């Protein structure tokens, strides 16, 4: 009975060759055999896996389909990564813009608060207890008291 070990080719060293996968641009995901020793000690044995089985084209077709699928998936992965990177650049740009707008608005708010505080502390603003006095009745005006402002409406 044939076992997978019996069908593996032998390298020039007499050892069973190791099945590996190509990661080159020209032959991506294509299987090949070479010496099973460490890279520095290998003999020059090399053989494509699919060339060993020329008698039956079905495995070659299946390998081609799988290799093509791997290439398509790899390209899709590259496309998705590129889209992610592009989106990240846009998001960072928008984040910087929004942060800048927020800082500008915060500075304007702080400036308005300072102005309100200055007005409240100035001599031009009547004392708070004066704002709470009842209408003197000398005119036809109605006094409406609020915390921040006094509005006088004429009837």
From TrEMBL:
It holds the Pfam family Zn_ribbon_GRF. It comes from the Eukaryota. Keywords: Coiled coil, Metal-binding, Zinc, Zinc-finger. Residues 63-122 form a coiled coil. GO terms for molecular function: zinc ion binding. Residues 11-52 form the GRF-type domain. InterPro entries: Znf_GRF. PANTHER family: ZINC ION-BINDING PROTEIN. This is GRF-type domain-containing protein.
């Amino acid at each position: 009975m044939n076992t997978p070990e019996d069908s593996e080719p032998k390298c020039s060293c007499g050892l069973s060759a190791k099945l590996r996968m190509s990661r080159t641009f020209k032959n991506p995901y294509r299987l090949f055999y070479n010496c099973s020793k460490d890279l520095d000690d290998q003999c020059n044995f090399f053989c494509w896996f699919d060339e060993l089985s020329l008698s039956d084209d079905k495995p070659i077709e299946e390998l081609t389909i799988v290799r093509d699928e791997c290439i398509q998936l790899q390209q899709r992965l590259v496309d998705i990564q590129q889209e992610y990177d592009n989106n990240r650049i846009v998001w960072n740009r928008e984040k910087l813009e929004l942060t800048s707008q927020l800082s500008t608005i915060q500075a304007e708010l702080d400036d308005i608060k300072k102005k309100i505080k200055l007005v409240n502390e100035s001599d031009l603003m009547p004392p708070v207890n004066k704002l709470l006095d009842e209408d003197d009745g000398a005119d036809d005006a109605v006094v409406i008291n609020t915390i921040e402002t006094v509005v006088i409406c004429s009837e």
